[in-house]
Amino acid sequence: MSEKTEKWFDSHQETLCRVSRVLWENPEGSEQEYQSCETLKQLLRSHGFSISAPTAGLDTAFTASYGSGRPYIGFLAEYDALPGLAQETVPEPCQIPDQPYGHGCGHNLLGTAAAGAAIALKEAMAAEGLPGTVFLYGCPSEEIMVGKIVMAKNHVFDDLDAAISWHPGDRNRASEESYQAMLSMEYHFRGKASHAAMAPEEGFSALDAVELMDVGVNYLREHVPAGGQLHYVILNGGEKPNIVPEKAAVWQFIRANTTQDLQRIAGRMDDIAKGAAIMTGTAVEKKILTGCNETRIVPALARLLEQVMSQEVAPPVWSEEEKEFSRKLLAALGQSPDTLRQNYGADAWENPLHDRTDALTGKTVNILGSSDISDVSYVVPTCMLFAACYPMGTPNHTWAVTACAGGSIGQKGMIYAGRVMAAAGYHLLTDGELRERVKASFREALQGAAYTPVA
Question: Model confidence over 110-142: pLDDT tens digits?
């Protein structure tokens, strides 16, 4: 680890906390992150980075770079917020009026820490005269599975020796978790309108087709591979009950532990849609919105992150005020002391903020949920860590995360994550043998698979 990266964080904590708070106070939804994007670009520009924007045709994506030549080390930033999760920094539900979005996934912290890590590594490079190039990629629209997928398709990450990211969580650990492959699709049915009472025999109901498809999909649940998940909402079910609906649509999500399983489920869902159309005399058209592969875990990179987290960068020290805030927040979420102790240890209620580092298991763990970082992991060696930014037992995508992401709890986790990423980046930049081990580990993780976009 370079002393320069540590010293940079020591002297710039207030700056990073201020930037994260600016993003928190001005939350923007996916594909709308104009101010957030500009705030991070200004921070990087002020520390000597060159900025290229937009990237991959995405208005709120950008590439910041410093240095020249190899190795190429990249950090991945996200900064989009979630609808309906505006929340004051208090430990009970308290929505901010007239604010449609909130950082209930902590991306204000995620983007700021990634930028901080890139800047800290740049400072070490400049001070020590190190060759190489450090990149910070502004990756928008993660919440709708767009940014990194489009960027990967456009070969933005192809030349990296390693990509490093993180995510706010309730524990400190190097990630061995593989996010699920996912496919997002709309099925649009078209029939024939008629008077539902006076001429029902003349109508072909698109709504009937949607409902029959949904019945078929629900029966499919029993027959998907282990880990498979199906979610849907009806987008359009007609205009009035006395008119046979000419148009109707359903939005379907499929998740699976592997892309291969995902495609198997998708094929069966297509057949169900065709069957619903045949049964109702309607036509069906499928519209693919987005999709991602599962995450490929690179053990050599996971071990590097664990080494940094367990031996080089100490986790945050939590104040009694932060612990009390956390207990009140957990109580407002309905978490009991006994449940917390049962799930997280005997002292979990007294110390609800994680203050150590979990050890690696040595195994890839399939987790529920998806992320566009998975497509990056098919292209270049990719790693991420989780850092405690809210109390253990706090569900993600909730008002409680927004409350922590705007205050000292989230900010302490953010600074910790930034330090870890910068230290890992320094090792990769300066250790050629490590980079070779990472390349070999990446090849083994891919098992011969080539990157193919799901959508």
Answer: 999 999 999 999 999 999 999 999 999 999 999
Question: Is residue 367 within 8 Å of 179, Cβ to Cβ?
Answer: yes
What is the reported pLDDT for 2? 72
pLDDT score recorded for residue 4 = 84
Rg (the chain; Cα; Å): 24
Integer Cα distance of 310 and 402 in angstroms: 28
Main-chain phi, psi angles of 278, to 5 degrees? -65, -45
Record: fold of 3-178+295-446: Aminopeptidase (3.40.630)
- Are the beta carbons of 113 and 166 closer than 8 angstroms? yes
Q: Compute the distance between CA of residue 160 and CA of residue 443 in angstroms, rounded to an integer.
A: 14
d(CA 386, CA 428): 19
Between helix 3-25 and helix 34-45 the angle, nearest 10°, is 150
Task: List, in sequence order, every residue forming a beta bridge with 285; answer none if it has no partner.
Answer: 188
Strand order in 247-256's β-sheet?
A: 229-236, 247-256, 181-190, 283-292
For residues 427-441, average pLDDT: 98
Q: Where are the domains of the chain?
A: 3-178+295-446, 181-292
Backbone angles phi, psi at 366, to 5 degrees: -80, 125
Instruction: For 241, list phi and psi in degrees, rounded to 5.
Output: -60, -30
- Average pLDDT value for the chain: 97
State mean pLDDT over 40-46.
98
181-292 placed in CATH 3.90.580.10: no
Q: Which residues pair with 177 in a beta bridge?
A: 365
Q: What is the pLDDT of residues 382-412, one digit of tens each?
A: 999 999 999 999 999 999 999 999 999 999 9
Percent of the chain with pLDDT over 70: 100
Closest CA to 189 of 201, 174, 203: 203
- Please report, as a single letter, which amino acid is at residue 373: I
Measure the CA–CA gap between 343 and 323, rounded to whole angstroms. 18
